[in-house]
Amino acid sequence: MLLRIFLALLLLGGSAMAQPALPSDQRMDQIEKRLEDLERKYNQDIKSRDEEIARLKAQVQQQSTTTPAATTSTDSIEQSRQAILKDIESREPSAQILRVPANFNPDLAVIGDFKGNLSSLNDNPARNRFDLATLELEMRAAVDPRADAVAVIPFSREVDDPLFFNKADASGNVDTGVEIEEAYLFMHDFGVPNLTAKLGRFHLRFGRQNILHNHDWPTVDNNFVNQSFLGPEALTDNGLSLSYVIPPQYVGGQYIEAIAEIISGEGNGDEGPVVNNSAVVDGPALNTHLLWNHDIARDWNLELGGSWLTAKHDDDNQQNVNLFGTDLTLIHTDPTGGFFNQLIQAETIYGDVDSSRTDSQHAWGAYLLAQQQINRDWYAGVRLDYTENALNDQQDVWGASAYLTWYWSEFLRFRMEYQHKDGDVPAEDTLYFQATWVFGAHPPHPYWSMR
Amino acid sequence: MRSIDCLFHWYSSGATKERKNEVSTKKEIPCSIPSCLLRHFVPSWLWLLFTLLLPATFAHAQLKIVTTAPDYADIAKQIGGDKVTVHSVMKGPENVHNVMAKPTEMVFLNQADLFVHSGLDTEPWRDNLLKGARNPRVLPGKPGNVDMSTGIELKEVPIGKIDRSEGDVHSYGNPHYTLNPQIAQRMAVTLVKAMCDVDPANASLYKASAIKFVNSMTDLSRELRATFAPYTGLKVVTFHKAWEYFADAVPIEIVGTIEPKPAITPSPAQVQQTIQLMKDQHVKVVICETYDDSKLAQHIADAVGAKMIVLPDHVNGVPEASSYQELFRYDVKKLIEAAGGK
After folding, report:
1. In B, which residues are within 8 Å of A442 by CB distance?
2. Biggest alpha carbon–alpha carbon distance for chain B
3. CB environment B264-301: b (16+ within 10 A), e (fewer)
């Protein structure tokens, strides 16, 4: 309607300017005629457009009922074209699309452990030197929905450093080698509730620190009692380890774990002080461990454990070894959520070890460790050691150590430790230095390591 | 199975006459020795009691949920109400990356129907806890294992080769996604689906509560924006890269972090660089998480005349942050106070 009025006014104006000489009635007739012509033409245009719109609508409707995908894909193709054209015009770099690689490689970590020391005991060839003690390869992966596999293969380079040092036995040879420290299947879900199993070669669950790898010790060196009874680093063996958590509802909501291990009884071979057999020894050995873990308060956690190991000694089926151990771990966690945590840990071992077919040694030993985490990166602690020689209960050694640990990050750590050692061994004062680094996947820590 | 059926059928009938009839019928059905022994030696009233109590026990059984972080525990409580029992391994103020997974936590997880966690590589201690708990229902891939990162678009996803020169970098991207109410809506969807799967009897209740929670998150998002509107673009320095998702919900501008790389303590030179950055950018607020070194954060703030505030990044990080909603209200209140508002 507005259009028609506008056109009428336009024509009126135009006619007035173009034909001023015509009489007024004639002019009005001409205008009327032209208006009628225009209206007719306008109506025809509208009609033809309405017809065209109706035809297109019918066409679209027909297409949407027969080929909906084609319409959608045409739209998306057009959108894609527009996006590409827009991208060509843009000065921004093309958008990155993340490609997530999928593979079956295991979690892989390489752990370097570099140690050095300065000591007053020059007679000991393991003192006043530094060396890459171990370079350890750790691999972990699931091999089945119900089982994981673990392999720990250290490459070591060390000088023999016995706890009960004797100058006459010192060779000074630098031992290099590779060994299978651990390689086992861990079956975590094989149908028996609360029961898990390890099958292969593993650290025995005797006490608390024997299950640790060297680089996980809170101190540079191993505690004395474990060195005297279990081995310079740890007691490992081949066999089956079963671990059962008693259903908490039957024991008042407590965490009680029982471990039984049937092992070949060969131990670490020559390295082992008491479980030191070769393949000629008969029968398996048995190790058992029972632990109770309890929150004694909101921020205090206590763990008590007991262990018993029975095996043979010196490749002689007539010589028996019985080791009895107790352990305690007490943790106080920072209630503010910070890192001011405290740890107290103690272990004792009593041994009934046949040193010959007619003689038995009844030795014991213990350590007490106290550690303070100062902040996220710094730890300080002391360790007191006393132990008798598991193979000679008339010989003992004691030590006092203080250490400071500095984590640059989760994967790089430096440690200093001062140790005074005395007893039925040459007295010595030693300053240890250690640098430990990890590259690769994040290795799991024991819960009390405070990392 | 047949013998158990026959026992239940028999002992659940009340009348003595009927019982006698049933006994005579049952004699014709062969059944196992233990069930026959039970029939003869266990008093019938005991079985009746058992029969009555058994359904009642199941009717009142609550869904047991163990979560890594208290944020998930609070959302689970808001969705599940009295139909769930919830336990969080992390109490609130700790660093989610450094929680001590004690064996006592395994006691809770041993009996859990759902284990709700952050997924990704947020909780390196999680696997030890899972393996120690001996609960196949909550192992990865099982319906009881709930990964709250599902469906969430992460920020700062590393591209190309990564290594430890980037610090304790997270290979999947920034994992602190809980600090955004809009993301909490997605988390609620993930959680409620898992709850409905393992407890279909209460599914309609869970869904209704989840919808209510999602709506409350929309309200919270609007509330936060409105409350913080006068301070939009407030420049801050944070200790850890934990506030990137928060900055989407509460419009702060994160200019830098005190940690030069994730989980790396700064050297004195790097501290000076942060101070210089704050001077150049006129930053007036330093955010320190509850678990980080507030003394260092205060030192940096003092050097430029800024204000240092300790903010919780998880529920129960401070007593006032007693729920997911209150966590945000507390953090925004503290930010406004630091910016000079009231």
Report:
1. 121, 124
2. 95
3. bbbeeeebeebbebbeeeebbbbbbbbbbbbebbbebb
pLDDT of amino acid A15: 47
Phi, psi of A144 (to 5 degrees): -165, 160
**Angle at alpha carbon of residue A346, lines to A341 and A351, rounded to 5°:** 160
Contacts of B169 (CB under 8 A, 6+ apart): B158, B162, B261, B262
Total-model pTM: 0.76
- E-strand ranges in chain B read 63-67, 84-88, 114-117, 145-147, 234-238, 252-257, 285-289, 307-311
Q: Give the minimum alpha-carbon distance from A65 to chain B in angstroms, rounded to a whole number.
A: 34
What are the two backbone dihedrals, phi and then psi, of residue A297, each rounded to the nearest 5 degrees? -155, 175
Q: Are B164 and A447 in contact (CB < 8 Å)?
A: no
ipTM of the complex: 0.75
β-pair type (A300-313, A316-332): antiparallel
Residue B215 burial class via C-beta count within 10 angstroms: exposed 0-12, middle 13-18, buried 19 and up:
exposed
A121-145 pLDDT, tens digit per residue, is 999 999 999 999 999 999 999 898 8
- Reported as a single tens digit per residue, the pLDDT across B60-88 is 589 999 999 999 999 999 999 999 999 99
Instruction: Verify whether the Cβ–Cβ distance B168 to A409 is below 8 Å.
Output: yes
Number of H helices and E strands in chain A, helices first, is 4, 17
